[in-house]
Amino acid sequence: MEPTKKNCLVSNDCQNKFGITACMGLLVFICSSIVPAHAVIEYDIKPEKEVSRWSGYVSAGYTRNVYGAESYHAYEAFNIDGRVSYRADWGNLMLTFGGEQEMLHGKESSFYDPFLEYRTPIYHLSDTVTVKGSAGVYLPASRYSKLDNLQYAPRVGAYVFWSPLEKLQFYVSPRYRYNAYQYQTAGERVLIEHQFDTLVDAFWIINSNLYFEMNGRYRISKNYYGRRMDDSFTFAQELGWQFNEDWVLALGHNNSGGFYHPEIGSSKGFDIYNKKSSTFYLSVTKYL
After folding, report:
1. Is 48's pLDDT higher than 50?
2. Contact assessment for residue 96 and residue 113, using Cβ atoms and an 8 Å cutoff
3. What is the mean pLDDT of residues 209-217?
4. Which of 12-21, 36-45, 176-185, 228-237 has the lowest mean pLDDT?
5. Residue in 220, 215, 206 with CA at minimum distance from that of residue 253
6. I need a labelling partner for 217 at 20 to 30 A (CA). Which of 124, 177, 237, 267 fits?
7. Which DSSP helix (H) or strand (E) runs through 25?
């Protein structure tokens, strides 16, 4: 998310060892495909006062599931991420980056794939609806991207914002990503070439210091042979507290699941909470 500062509160993957069991593989997918709500918000509400062309944030977090540390299914990690943004009349240029340190199962660390992105200026379709475009590229830095020999991954998208009430805001963001790997397979795995996402987000300003955010993302993926892979849905909720003009403390929950598809067959379904796939996180964010 790109949080943005205002007098009242507004604000705009974890990977495990390569090649371990399917259960841990599921956990890797969950942690890598769900972005916590605080990292997804893209609201760009104009502040009441003029802001600098340069802005950004730094966020540190702790993520855990409900399994005990002795369990093979346990997941625990610390992460830090951030964004640097430059704003001009022609739009925004942003660099998002970060990494994590796992605390269990080998205690591995990894960078995230940095994302260099350009966003167009906001266009007003009505008093309550605005839209902007996005184009960017992911660069290989994470453990999995290097193991899979990812060369680059361009992504295009759009953001449609709707503000029916002063304290209630929504956006829908369709996105397409192309993964350019050096090879079409990595070990026994067929790699994803095309990835389509639709993200829907709701943001409620409870009062001047508290907010609640909820978002869901539906993903469709195809491999290099044109076969449609498992469609997936991710769901995140976050409660945030702005305890200082430039600081926000947040508590959130993530979960993931799949849907039935005629080419794939039935899935395990989706629950808002599932012990095997839910993770919880605590984060603190400093706006720059």
Report:
1. no
2. no
3. 92
4. 12-21
5. 215
6. 124
7. helix 22-33
